[in-house]
Amino acid sequence: MNELLAGILDAHGRMENWRRYDRIEATIVSGGGLFALKGVPQDSTPRRMTVWLNEQRSSVFPFGASDQRTMFTSDRIAIERLDGTLVAERHAPRDSFAGHQINTPWDQLHRAYFNGEALWTYLTTPFLLAMEGVRVEETEPWREGEETWRVLRAYFPGWLETHCLVQDFFFGEDLMLRRHDYNLNIAGGVAAAQLTSAYAEASGIRLPTKRRAYARGPDRQPIPSMLLVSIDITDVSFS
């Protein structure tokens, strides 16, 4: 394993501890300008997010109605009622974003897919970087004010549903995640820089609870006036 990644995993709670669990649950409140651009404005209602750790699967509740939730897997997105009754579904959901640009409208299944793949990625970071099929390498460090952040570039396999195949993860001297850069392929490849902060600990696992994704300029700097997505995370538990 990459030496830097090994240290990062230890700092976040150790891989052997992570492997003790099957799921993480958290309350999320999300917002930002991307949802309005897509015609699906996000309200400030707290929602309960469940992410499975040993497979790419996630669900959020409520979604669209008080008795509805989503179910995301790598090859299907669905909206269903709590009794399991199917409301809507789409197979091979990534294909439905073909030709999309930043302002292309989304339907509710588009929105559900984005929520599912994004939160699965965020809530499994940095441990997903050690998954089979993921390759990482350390790139040039990033200077941020008086700090120097070390950068891991991750190359993801094509079968994994995530923002794009190559993403950069920035870590401070304490090996905590400070920033996550990617291109949002399902929205025309818009470049994003997501700043992370406010670490919390649950069951010995450490994770950032505040995420702010901004459009990223050609100088690789986030553009403060262009907040794409905000996520606040509370009440984290592992099982």
UniProtKB/TrEMBL annotation:
Domain of life assignment: Bacteria
Protein's recorded name: Uncharacterized protein
Biological source species: Rhizobium meliloti (Ensifer meliloti)
